[in-house]
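writing this on my phone so excuse typos. first protein, seq and then structure
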Amino acid sequence: MNETIKLSSPVSLNGVLVNQLTLREPTVGDQLSARKMAGNDDEQFELTMLANLAGCAPTDLHQVTLRDYDKLQKAYLRLSSPEPSADGKQPAVVGMGAETR
């Protein structure tokens, strides 16, 4: 799943002027590598995650306006949230709980 965000102001990413960014759905690997790069810095973690999902360097996102950054944050949350079932309820989590051991 991907989500394309229209930017209110164009930015140069990887040397190309763009007016939209497409974020792909995050993976466990994205989360692990971003956490490793950012350490305990939550802001750097978020910036690294967004850059990885957009296919650019974290420093490229420094030029994005705060309004557009807010759009990227919201898109990230939508892409990383569980999808509700057809009835609108969250799907059940299946796992090895204490009751199954």
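second protein below, same order as before
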Amino acid sequence: MTPAEAATAHGWRRVLAFGAHPDDLDFGAAATVAGLTRAGVEVTYCVMTDGDAGGFEPGDRHAINERRQQEQRDAAVLLGVRDVEFLGERDGYLEPSHEVIAQVVALMRRHRPDAVLAMHPERDWSRLQRSHPDHLAAGEAVVRAAYPAVENPFAYPELAEQGLEAFRLRWLVLFGGPAALTNLVLDVTGTEQVKLQALRHHVSQHPDVPRMEAFVLQAMADLHRRWSPEKAGDDEQDDPAGAVRYAEAFHLVAVNDESTISGF
């Protein structure tokens, strides 16, 4: 299934995407995002921290926030993302506090997406770097906002007073979690290079760009082979050059569907 096919199958016309730091969404889902926007899906990014703990040069500390925000904006334009919002929480200090959750609920109610794309709140012990504490906190804040807060008119009543009315979110699309929870793998062949181009915009975070790009491509190719071994084998037999296909993986959660029978 491609991102465009997933959007059609699940009714995704508008997607709101949350990452903890500038570059998180592009590492986790840029090829999928590019496929969605090419299919006409409206995608908005929200970056929850200011990224001030990133980078490698001590002399950049005074300007790293602004630099990373601009890197994210530039990458988002390349992917066809409609807009990028920044919550401005301190890098390394993000917590799923009620102050943060209220901001997430406000964004969800304002954009009223069909699906929310976000980092997974569960730690991946197989690759601990995927589970930075800010990543886990971002995922937890989004999940708590998705249910029940965004659909409860009595949660954060100040938002309703601002005209941000409750609504029921249908889908959560989570990335970066334990492999055992993966239940949606999307074929992103054709947008893998766009993902690399987006990641190149985050130059302040890459001391070795060629190694980063090789790692990302290999990971996407390995993922496709693991989840579609027969299809991958057919491709290689049909193509004398040995076609390589690429994938991105998610944990798809139905927040509200036909089986939902109760409220809060």
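The chain is about 40% helix and 15% strand. thats all i got for now
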